[in-house]
Amino acid sequence: MLKLNDVNITFNKGTVNERKALCEMNLHINKGDFVTVIGSNGAGKSTLMNAVCGSYEVDSGHILLAGKDVTRLREHQRAKYIGRLFQDPLKGTAPNMTIEENLGLAYGRGKKRTLAFGISKRDINVFREKLASLGLGLEDRMKTPVGLLSGGQRQALTLMMATIVTPSLLLLDEHTAALDPKTAGKVLEITNRIVKENNITTLMITHNIQNALEYGNRTLVLSQGKLLMDIEGERRENMTTEDLMKLYADSTDDVMSDKMILKS
Amino acid sequence: MPFLFLFKKGIIMDKSKRINKNKVISFIPKLILVVVLLLIINLKLTQTQVYGALELGLIYSILALGIFISLRILDIPDLTVDGSFTLGVAVSVIFAYNGHPFIGIVAAIAAGAISGIVTGALQTKLNVQPILAGIITLTALYSINLHIMDGNPNISLWKKETIFTYFQGKLPEGVPYKIIVAAGILLIAVVFIYWFLNTQLGMAIRATGDNEYMVRASSINSDRMKIIGFAIANGFVALSGGVIAQYQSYGDANGGTGMLVAGAASIIIGEVFFGKHTIVSCILSSVVGAIAYRFILSFAISIGMEAMDFKLFSAIIVALAICVPTIKKMATRTYRRMKDKGGNASA
Ligand SMILES: Nc1ncnc2c1ncn2[C@@H]1O[C@H](COP(=O)(O)OP(=O)(O)O)[C@@H](O)[C@H]1O
Ligand SMILES: [Mg+2]
Q1: How far apart are CA B315 and CA B264, in angstroms?
Q2: Which residue of B has its CA nearest to A88?
Q3: Burial status of residue A24 (CB atoms within 10 A of its CB: 0-12, 13-18, 19 or more)
Q4: Which of B37, B151, B180, B274 could form a disulfide with B285 if both were Cys (CB 3.0 to 4.6 A apart)?
Q5: What are the φ/ψ torsions at residue B226 (nearest 5 degrees)?
Q6: pLDDT of residue A253
Q7: B242-279: per-residue pLDDT in tens?
Q8: What string of H, E and C letters represents the secondary structure of B248-260?
């Protein structure tokens, strides 16, 4: 499904601030995989995602999505196949536009934007049904500007927008990190449900080790721009957060940062 | 006057949304403005002046709508405006001079749109800073406009047919044909803009000004949206210039100077009445603001302001409007400090 071949990204090349953010990264993710990604601050997790979705250009290497080389495609071209959530809830939605207008924009993913009306009656019924499934009461506020919603509501809406046209790949970059624990839990549950229901290939960065093992079927650990561990199957099923921490400490001098949470 | 009815409606709309103390307070300056405008119209201006202000206001509304697209929708102040307005003047005046006033208007729109595409391409394809991109196009247009006008800094349409004289001949004697023509063109422009902003493409352009990350993540080419936005914005601006030239039967190669600020001032005045919450309120703000602005200028002239001070006047309005939030903040801080002092003294 998603393949990275020897991908390199270096920031500020040739300056004192030179930083290798991704180092000969090789990765193969199968269709239907729900992969969680952990690693200390600055390990290159966000860079990995930005490389996949095209926000950062890779210096060398290739990225293949569903067998197609997307390395030189621009961000909006890749977005036809990729749904995406940012850590910052403000980034995923247009604040001065209404809920239905935001959903209308997302509903056109991969299609040409024409001079047809932005939102049809039929669309509105689809949106209402989808929003109702979130259980946040947003279906009754379709004409409300998104800027008036809370961070959690906005993130849930962004999730809806990213998946309303089922993407080939869903990228989640600590999408619950800016939310309070209760809301974060709820958004995570909704995420899990949508991913499972539509069998979406997903890459989810999290700073919560417990979540990383609890959700999905495979866990990647990144350190200093490299893939340190790739855990799946039976080994992953029997693994506790303590095991993972110990493994991590043994294989690198890097310490897990304070930001990492063992238990929620 | 028809727009006074709109003023009232705007106030009622605001009130019905939510009545609280802040709403009532913000309602007072609106009321004062309406009263002052009424006084100006009834006491100070002659009928000719009222008609003149209304005609100009209707035509400059189209300019304000164009600036609204770049300034408010795309959230980028576009300096191309001063040049594309004159471009509209130049193209329209040349076609009218050669006997094709209607083709002149259409060609003005097309020329304006092209200048917008140039600015948009500079910004998105070549990564030129937005303000600088506008200045570059504007500067190039100085020469281009003069070329279009065959090197003449001004051209008169004396005794030539214009869209206005055409309709004067078609309409019965005594009707205010200039107002009818101007209002007709404005109506088409307003309907177009309302329709366009609600299409898929229009929504994508609105979102581009609102949150570019989200737009790209929704598989929309934000660069292309900006270019289309600038094209439409400057098409409107040039239309306004083209109509003004035929309205005045005169084209001036320096006519566009200060148009961006004048348009922005109009929009800001309009927003006092209608706010900028929905597309409808934004369109009303641009149109009513542009008309109100012309009435204010007429009033200022009638009490002795000279035409050469117009630009100073609009610059002050825009500067003030931009400063209002800061001034408010300073006022609140001073007020709190004074209150604190008072509290300490009595304790
Ligand atoms: N746009 C950028 N410019 C320069 N350096 C960057 C940029 N983005 C990330 N980096 C650097 O690359 C490294 C990896 O960052 P990132 O992928 O954001 O880490 P994380 O795993 O915490 O998400 C960090 O050292 C960071 O400072
Ligand atoms: Mg990160």
Answers
A1: 9
A2: B213
A3: middle
A4: B274
A5: -65, -45
A6: 65
A7: 999 999 999 999 989 999 999 999 999 898 888 888 89
A8: HCEEECCCCCCHH
Considering CB atoms only, which of B196, B202, B217 is closest to A84?
B217
Question: Cα–Cα distance between B95 and B99 in angstroms, integer?
Answer: 6
**pTM, 2 dp:** 0.88
Closest CA to B266 of B291, B246, B241, B245: B291
Count each helix (H run) and each strand (E run) in chain A, helices first: 9, 10
Q: What is the DSSP letter of B114?
A: H
CATH code that applies to domain B49-326: 1.10.3470
Strand locations in chain A, DSSP E?
Answer: 2-11, 19-29, 34-39, 60-65, 68-69, 82-85, 169-173, 201-205, 218-223, 226-232
User: Which amino acid belongs to residue B163?
Assistant: I
Query: B residues 184-203 near A, CB within 8 Å?
Result: 196, 198-203
d(CA B143, CA B130): 21
CB under 8 Å to B143, separation ≥6 — which residues?
Answer: none
Runs of H (alpha helix) within chain B: 2-17, 21-39, 47-68, 80-97, 101-124, 130-148, 163-170, 177-197, 200-210, 212-217, 222-248, 259-274, 279-302, 310-346
Q: What residue's CA is closest to ligand 1, atom 27?
A: A42
- pLDDT of B339 reads 84
Q: Which of B93, B92, B67 is nearest to B81 (CA)?
A: B67
Nearest CA to B202 out of B233, B229, B235, B238 is that of: B229
CA B127 to chain centre: 27
Give pLDDT, residue B226: 98
Cβ neighbours, 10 Å, residue B77: 15
Please tell me which residue of chain A has the smallest CA distance to B279: A97
Structural domain spans, chain B? 49-326
**C-alpha pair distances (Å), A70 with each of A57, A171, A176:** 11, 16, 28
Query: Is A41 within 8 Å of A174 (Cβ atoms)?
Result: no
Domains of chain A: 1-81+168-178+201-264 (3.40.50.300)
